[in-house]
Amino acid sequence: MRPAFVTGGSSGIGLAAALLLAKKGHDIALFARDTAKLANARRSILAAAPQITVCEFPVDVSDRNAITSAVEEAASKLGCPMIAIASAGVAYPGLFTEQPLEHHERQMAVNYFGTLYFTHAVTKLMSKANGGQIGLISSGAAFVGIYGYAAYAPSKFALRGLAEVLRLELEAQNISITVCYPPDTKTPQLEVENATKPAATAEFTQGGGLWNAEAVALKLIEGMAKGRLVVTPGPQMLGLSWFGSLIAPVLRSYQRRLIRKHSS
């Protein structure tokens, strides 16, 4: 069984996905910045699946040369991945006129370009090994503009476009693309996000429900196995996927009411 490569694999949805794949028998390559969290993640995976091999790669996915080299090193140790999940991401909500441009740059660098670099690297490997499955983590914020997400949402909109193009371009190489649009998910990243999330944003995003990382990861992996392009955990995300453009005016009107409510 060919291995699985996971960015953001030291916590949250990435770690949950790595655990599920390890239990299926895949060797695992974890890519994340924090060496201590990577070590803890490795221990927890091996405790659940002691028969497999787990390799850690401390790397910032927004560094193109570093993530490309790390993927190549992982392939030299474990072999070409059958499954690759790009879960690394950051979110720093705030108002456009108040946030520094560095917040915009960082979120695009990690969420979009980090995913792009990783996907490009694993695609080169998979194309020589009879294909594979690639999973990308977008967001419900990719369906409709959300107050407070001027720096975050564009990076997730961009992933949606990338996934839809790659779905067509990589099909001939037997490489499938699946993009997941989770609602708020109980992860360490959500705790960071909530620290700066405007009150109107928090109330609006609550409408998508709160999922746990394991449930989102399971939906993603099941969708990848079935060759689906889109995975939408929960009825709210499914509705946005189908009707987002049609109901966008209603959602904007609702957000205006929330903004007035929390500004008064």
Overview of the molecule:
This protein has helices at residues 12-23, 35-48, 64-78, 101-126, 153-169, 188-196, 199-205, 213-225, 235-263, and strands at residues 4-7, 28-32, 54-58, 83-86, 132-137, 175-180, 184-186, 210-212, 230-231. With 264 residues, it is α/β, with parallel strands linked by helices. The protein has one domain (4-263): Rossmann fold (3-Layer(aba) Sandwich). The strands form two sheets. It has a seven-stranded parallel β-sheet with strand order 3-2-1-4-5-6-9, with helices on both faces. A two-stranded parallel sheet has the order 7-8. Helix 1 links the parallel strand 1 and strand 2. Helix 1 packs parallel to helix 2 (35-48), helix 4 runs parallel beside helix 5 (153-169) and helix 7 (199-205) runs antiparallel to helix 9. The longest helix is centred in the C-terminal third of the chain and has 29 residues, at 235-263.
Give the gist of this structure.
This protein is of the alpha/beta class and 264 residues long. The chain has nine helices and nine strands.
Please indicate the count of domains.
1
CATH topology type: Rossmann fold
Largest sheet: 7 strands, parallel
Overall CATH class: Alpha Beta
Q: Order of strands across the widest beta sheet?
A: 3-2-1-4-5-6-9
Q: Supply the CATH architecture.
A: 3-Layer(aba) Sandwich
Which regions are unreliable across 5 or more consecutive residues at pLDDT < 50?
none
Q: How far is it from the N-terminal to the C-terminal residue, by CA?
A: 58 Å
User: Could you spell the SSE succession in H and E letters?
Assistant: EHEHEHEHEHEEHHEHEH
Which band does the percent of strand residues land in?
A: 5-15%
